[in-house]
Amino acid sequence: MDAQTAELKVLDTAQRLFDAQGVQAVGMDAIRSASGVSLKRLYQLFPSKDLLVQAVLRRRDEAVRGSVAAHGARTADGPYERALAVFDWLADWFAEPGFRGCAFINGFGELGGVSPAVVAISRDHKEALRAYFAEQTDALGAPPVLADQLSLLANGAMAVAGITGSPEPAAQAKAAARVLLDTAR
Predict the structure, then answer these.
(1) pTM (predicted TM-score)
(2) CA–CA separation, 115 vs 107, rounded Å?
């Protein structure tokens, strides 16, 4: 197995295990066993678990940013609709089998006190969502605080959906977002 294939297998496996069990509950040996990548190769690719966690989060960040933007571009005609489309994207995500919450919220909760890199990645990810909302609200001529409010609604929905196992918080947050957007018009 070449290095690139091994790296993808490790990242896929680690993401799946971290999502299912939490970061701290999963050891490097479990990732080795589940991925089929030798322990030697695993440590060549990721010399520490912290570096592996960072790589998983960075990859997830890139995927989520792209997916949210693509969903908005594909399903919405303007900034008002693109802002609301985030909540439709969230509803689809929350309804996926095995959904256990946001990797960045969960990762921060588990490692925020001991991993400055996880804190930085998580904060950057959450800022990117707020910035996406800011693009939409700026285009509407809405006050800048509206992007913060929409971001809070989305992140709150993520936390509640992760705890309850229900996609309903996305619909509830979307209804509140619509009220805020309508008020700002």
Answers:
(1) 0.94
(2) 10
